[in-house]
């Protein structure tokens, strides 16, 4: 924050800042200042240090700070936008100059990854603690704390995918909480429509990436794009959506225990969805059930 973010306001360096970066500080750094503030107050650190004598109290620190730790979710949500901007401007003289002054071996992007790495380190800490605390005092709380951190990581991961949805006319943030996302084989069967279409649809599945929100289920097609010499970035082009208030579900499809059905309008449209495993299918069904009830 001092060596890069503050330098963006340094009049002596302003001429080195690439035009693509103008007024984009918040995109590049996300809510890093908020994460810094949280740790800089050292309240969380002191609470954890107090557990050195009483490790069974560690879980409470995490449960107490559940809300605070959601700043990481916000950071991860912005990460794809930040990375795209970095790919555009990362090799500019401005960043080279900042790095030289700091005498850092690594460039800024390595440091921008730190918060993402930090939140995943917390889960490892809690998992290790659980290994050492079989059925002792505080085990239940540790399990709850681990679930809390895993939930933040899952939300962060899901929202990083959600940012890449293209072609959806509405506002994704109005669809309620994103509960699940993942790739499936999908067959469709429309009551209306030509028989021939119906027959074709039976055999060849479509690859669809599903996003389940409390109000809507989105069907998207995943596209991998090569960004000039960098790793592939996925985007999800919107195909269709079903309002959760009008869908029904059939949990078992004859002949394949990985398949389930989602139907619309009294089976006028039926979507046969095949998961990659029975476990995954069951997780999705239980989430959909919760929404429907």
Give an account of the 3D structure.
With 293 residues, the chain is of the alpha+beta class. It has two domains: 7-163, Dbl homology (DH) domain (Dbl Homology Domain, Chain A); 166-292, Roll (PH-domain like), CATH 2.30.29.30. It has twelve helices and eight strands. It has helices spanning 25-29, 32-40, 43-49, 58-64, 66-69, 71-89, 93-102, 108-112, 114-131, 139-162, 195-203, 278-292, and strands at residues 165-166, 178-190, 206-213, 216-226, 232-243, 247-250, 259-264, 269-274. It has an eight-stranded mixed sheet. Helix 6 (71-89) runs parallel beside helix 10. The protein is flat, with a radius of gyration of 23 Å.
- Main beta sheet, described? 8 strands, mixed
CATH topology type of the largest domain: Dbl Homology Domain, Chain A
Q: Class by helix and strand content?
A: alpha+beta
**Shape, per Cα inertia axes:** flat
CATH class of the largest domain: Mainly Alpha
Q: How many independent structural domains? A: 2
Mean pLDDT: 89
Question: If classified by CATH, what would the architecture of the largest domain be?
Answer: Up-down Bundle
| Helix content bin | 40-55%
**Strands side by side in the biggest sheet:** 1-5-4-3-2-8-7-6
Number of strands: 8
Number of discrete helical segments: 12
Gyration radius over CA: 23 Å
Termini separation: 47 Å
Domain DH: 1-159
GO biological process, one term: intracellular signal transduction
InterPro entries: DBL_dom_sf, DH_dom, GDS_CDC24_CS, PH-like_dom_sf, PH_domain, RhoGEF_Guanine_NuclExch_SF, SOS1_NGEF_PH
Protein name: Guanine nucleotide exchange factor DBS
């Amino acid at each position: 924050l001092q060596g890069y973010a503050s330098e963006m306001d340094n009049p002596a360096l302003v001429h080195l800042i690439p035009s693509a970066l103008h007024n984009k500080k918040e995109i590049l750094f996300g809510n890093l200042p908020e994460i810094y503030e949280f740790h800089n107050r050292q309240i969380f650190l002191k609470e954890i240090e107090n557990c050195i004598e009483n490790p069974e109290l560690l879980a409470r620190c995490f449960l107490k700070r559940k809300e605070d730790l959601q700043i990481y979710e916000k950071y991860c949500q912005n990460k794809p936008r930040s990375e795209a901007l970095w790919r555009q401007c990362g090799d500019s003289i401005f960043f080279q100059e900042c790095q030289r002054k700091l005498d850092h071996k690594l460039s800024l992007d390595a440091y921008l990854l730190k918060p993402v790495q930090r939140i995943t380190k917390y889960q490892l800490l809690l998992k290790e603690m659980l290994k050492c605390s079989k059925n002792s005092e505080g085990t239940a709380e540790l399990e709850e704390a681990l679930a809390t951190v895993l939930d933040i990581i899952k939300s962060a991961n899901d929202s990083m995918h959600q940012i890449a949805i293209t072609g959806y006319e509405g506002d994704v943030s109005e669809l309620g909480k994103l509960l699940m996302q993942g790739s499936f084989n999908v067959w469709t069967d429309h009551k209306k429509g030509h028989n021939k279409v119906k027959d074709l649809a039976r055999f060849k599945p479509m690859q669809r990436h599903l996003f389940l929100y409390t109000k809507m289920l989105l069907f998207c097609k995943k596209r991998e794009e090569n960004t000039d010499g960098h790793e592939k970035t996925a985007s999800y082009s919107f195909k269709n959506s079903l309002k959760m208030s009008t869908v029904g579900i059939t949990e078992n499809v004859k002949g394949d225990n990985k398949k389930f059905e989602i139907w619309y309008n009294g089976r006028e449209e039926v979507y046969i969805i095949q998961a990659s495993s029975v476990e995954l299918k069951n997780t999705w069904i239980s989430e959909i059930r919760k929404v429907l009830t």
